[in-house]
Design brief:
Layout: E1 24-25, E2 56-64, E3 74-84, E4 91-99, E5 113-120, E6 124-129, E7 139-149, E8 153-163, E9 168-178, H1 187-201, H2 230-252
Antiparallel strand pairs: 1-7, 2-3, 2-9, 3-4, 4-5, 5-6, 6-7, 7-8, 8-9
Length: about 250
């Protein structure tokens, strides 16, 4: 079985919404960052009461922390089943994600990656990210859901390079994914999404323009979905077993 580890921070989650926007959002307390800019190692996550609704097709609109700007990157979220976050009673949805993309505008070979993890109802998403489909060397990561709107936009944060001396993140990773393909929506819709990103990132002294837009173009094809590599199949099978054990435990106790 695959075991995922997450540090549960104990920060109280106070449900709130950005005025005028429908998604779930958790604003930090006024004194939380002590006037420091940037991301702390642990941030207040947005409650995600229905993580199974994240499943389906998304597009990578903006991304910070990647070595390059991707081309025609999309994400397909597949549900595995309801379980719980490790070492807690917090419900979570086990999910695996296929992420096809080109790494640059000149690339002719597709680069498909996989994310396998848990989406907790408290907005914490521990999991493993593959470096590629053929050379599966997973990296452990914990993403925090900053904003959930299942019909329009989903904003996540993770830390690639934590600084345990300052308690801040020296290399944050931010993902902004959208239900609609970004280059096919009207400018007013993109501005609406960017307004949400601005408000969500404002406590960290950042704006949407600080998170690079990814490239979408009809001049290149979209990479096709591929069968699960054997290494991914084994991890998914382990997650299925964890889900089944979770259901049995809930029934027995």
């Amino acid at each position: 079985m695959m075991h995922l580890f997450v540090i549960l921070c104990g920060i109280p989650l106070v449900f709130s919404q950005i005025p005028g926007y429908p998604g779930n959002y958790n604003s930090p307390p006024n004194n939380y960052y002590q006037r420091k800019c940037g991301f702390p190692l642990v941030v207040p996550s947005a409650p995600d009461p229905n993580p199974e609704m994240i499943t389906g097709l998304w597009y990578k609109y903006r991304q910070l922390g990647a070595p390059n700007v991707t081309v025609n990157q999309y994400l397909v979220y597949y549900p595995i089943g309801r379980t719980g976050l490790p070492f807690s009673t917090i419900p979570a949805e086990a999910i695996w994600v296929e992420i096809p993309q080109f790494d640059s505008i000149n690339d002719t070979m597709c680069d498909t990656r996989f994310w396998l993890g848990l989406f907790g109802v408290n907005g914490q998403n521990p999991g493993q990210n593959s470096q590629s489909a053929t050379d599966y060397i997973p990296t452990q990561a914990n993403l925090y859901g900053l904003y959930f709107d299942y019909e329009r936009v989903f904003i996540m944060y993770g830390c690639r390079k934590p600084n345990y001396v300052t308690g801040m993140c020296d290399q944050p990773v931010i993902h902004v994914i959208t239900r609609a393909r970004p280059d096919k929506v009207n400018p007013a819709e993109l501005q609406y999404i960017d307004d949400i990103v601005d408000r969500v990132l404002a406590p960290y002294c950042m704006r949407a323009v600080d998170v690079p837009q990814q490239i979408f173009t009809d001049k290149k094809p979209f990479c096709p979905l591929i069968p699960q590599p054997e290494c991914v199949k084994k991890i998914v099978a382990g997650m299925v077993m964890d889900v089944q054990n979770s259901i049995v435990s809930e029934y027995l106790y």
